[in-house]
């Protein structure tokens, strides 16, 4: 086997150097990607509560943050902003949404209509992006219904107590009536016997 000429070794070294440089550049570009962390992916709330949809992201540069709301009735963008700038909030969420520079949003006085999926997308200026989802379930506490049930149960308890008292009184009256009747029957039987004795 013949040894390679000197020029080939030099070209091979340059090629390896370029390959290493490309790999390093690719590693740098990868390290500049967006990472997103969602501490709580499902939230249960009650009506009129203030809810924090909490997230944390990391990336190089200032990203664009967008939140979308998806429910059975469709999807809509509710807010978009860059940290440090004013947020572009949709009409449906004006005056009931607050944004934070870490990507989180807060919803004020939520209702049952706010139940659904909230999707956040964090996009870096180089084009890489990351998204995550938080599920919000808002339930309604029906104090009026509970009050009605409590009043109805109290009414039933009062009616039951009244019926038990009436039954007790009726039972006492029936017992006294039977005693009087027996006493009268005994008296009439005694009179009949006395009359029979007199006739004899």
Describe the protein's architecture and organization.
Helices cover 42% and strands 28% of the residues. With 200 residues, it is of the alpha+beta class. The protein has two domains: 34-141, Sandwich (Immunoglobulin-like), CATH 2.60.40; 142-200. The strands form three sheets. The protein has a six-stranded mixed β-sheet, with no helix packed on it. It is rod-shaped and about 150 Å long. The chain starts with 5 loop residues before the first helix and ends with a helix. InterPro entries: CD2/SLAM_rcpt, Ig-like_dom_sf, Ig-like_fold, Ig_sub, NK_rcpt_2B4_Ig_dom.
For this entry, give a set of tags.
alpha+beta; Immunoglobulin-like; 3-stranded antiparallel beta sheet; 2 helices; 28% strand
Count of the separate structural domains: 2
Straight-line N-to-C gap:
163 Å
Helical content (DSSP H or I, runs of 4+): 40-55%
% residues in beta strands: 25-35%
CATH topology term of the largest domain:
Immunoglobulin-like
Order of helices and strands: HEEEEEEEEEEEH
What strand line-up does the widest sheet have? 2-11-10-5-6-7
As residue ranges, the low-confidence spans are 22-31
**Structure annotation, total helices:** 2
| Nearest-integer average pLDDT | 82
Total beta-strand segments: 11
The largest pleated sheet is described as: 6 strands, mixed
Radius of gyration: 43 Å
Architecture of the largest domain in CATH? Sandwich
Q: Write down the overall geometry.
A: rod-shaped
Give me the CATH superfamily of the largest domain.
Immunoglobulins
Query: Which structural class should the secondary elements be placed in?
Result: alpha+beta
The top level CATH class name of the largest domain: Mainly Beta
Keywords: Cell membrane, Cell projection, Developmental protein, Glycoprotein, Membrane, Signal, Transmembrane, Transmembrane helix
Pfam families: Receptor_2B4
Protein name: V-set and transmembrane domain-containing protein 5
Organism: Ursus maritimus
């Amino acid at each position: 086997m013949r040894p390679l000429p000197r020029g080939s070794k030099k070209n091979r070294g340059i090629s390896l150097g370029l390959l290493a440089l490309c790999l390093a550049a690719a590693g740098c570009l990868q390290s500049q990607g967006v990472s997103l962390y969602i501490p709580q992916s499902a939230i249960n709330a009650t009506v009129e509560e203030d809810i924090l949809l909490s997230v944390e992201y990391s990336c190089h540069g200032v990203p664009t943050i967008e939140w979308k709301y998806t429910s059975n009735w469709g999807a809509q963008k509710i807010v978009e902003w860059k940290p440090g700038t004013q947020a572009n909030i949709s009409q449906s969420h004006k005056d009931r949404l607050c944004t934070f520079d870490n990507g989180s949003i807060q919803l004020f006085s939520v209702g049952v209509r706010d139940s659904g999926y909230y999707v956040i997308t964090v996009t870096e200026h180089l084009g890489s992006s990351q998204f995550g989802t938080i599920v919000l379930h808002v339930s309604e506490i029906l104090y009026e219904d509970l009050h009605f049930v409590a009043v109805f149960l109290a009414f039933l308890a009062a009616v039951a107590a009244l019926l038990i008292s009436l039954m007790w009184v009726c039972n006492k009256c029936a017992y006294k009536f039977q005693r009087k009747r027996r006493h009268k029957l005994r008296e009439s039987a005694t009179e009949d016997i006395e009359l029979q004795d007199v006739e004899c």
